[in-house]
Amino acid sequence: MTENKMPMRKIISFMHLSLDGFVAGLDGEMDWIKVDQEIFEYVGKRISEGDTALYGRLTYQMMENYWPTAADKPTASKHDIEHSNWYNKVHKVVLSKTMTDTGLTNATIISDNLSDRINEIKQGAGKDILLFGSPTATHSLIEQNLIDGYWLFVNPIILGRGIPLFVDIKDKIQLKLLNTRQFAIGVTELNYIVDRQ
């Protein structure tokens, strides 16, 4: 009798990207990223289906400074309310060597044994895990072949320099294109899955 195995959860890296492959300027600036209501609604629909978010420490702290109470502000937009509500209920996984779980709400800190800990999470029950921004965390996960897909929003800009999405890639990563979408604001979505065959 064969055992019914759950399909392994996937880690999908969600990034805004310049045409020349940067995810932020040299000082981490992201003021070049274009977003509008069309993108908010499209991304919000996909994100709302997820139950786990993965962050590096800096991105997590940035999110924690805004999203838990964003819906409570009198000027909160529809997007702010929806994303705040989602953020408060989703489980957060944070890659950090300096943070501890003490006092955190609905969050798990991974500080060592990255591959083993991530694979434990991937084998658990739930939906795909979305890795938001977090270039340093992304680089660590790429290095250990733990990312299963790339959900990229290519912005119509060439930065020339900055923080790249891909650095020191040792082995080729074969990708399969799932879909693309062009937004009126000029951003192009590219949705890839890693082809491990």
From TrEMBL:
Bacterial bifunctional deaminase-reductase C-terminal domain location: 9-186
Cited Gene3D superfamilies: Dihydrofolate Reductase, subunit A
Pfam families: RibD_C
UniProt-listed InterPro entries: DHFR-like_dom_sf, RibDG_C, Riboflavin_Biosynth_HTPR
PANTHER family per UniProt: 2,5-DIAMINO-6-RIBOSYLAMINO-4(3H)-PYRIMIDINONE 5'-PHOSPHATE REDUCTASE, DIHYDROFOLATE REDUCTASE FAMILY PROTEIN (AFU_ORTHOLOGUE AFUA_8G06820)
The protein's name: Dihydrofolate reductase family protein
Organism: Rhodocytophaga aerolata
Source taxonomy: Bacteria, Pseudomonadati, Bacteroidota, Cytophagia, Cytophagales
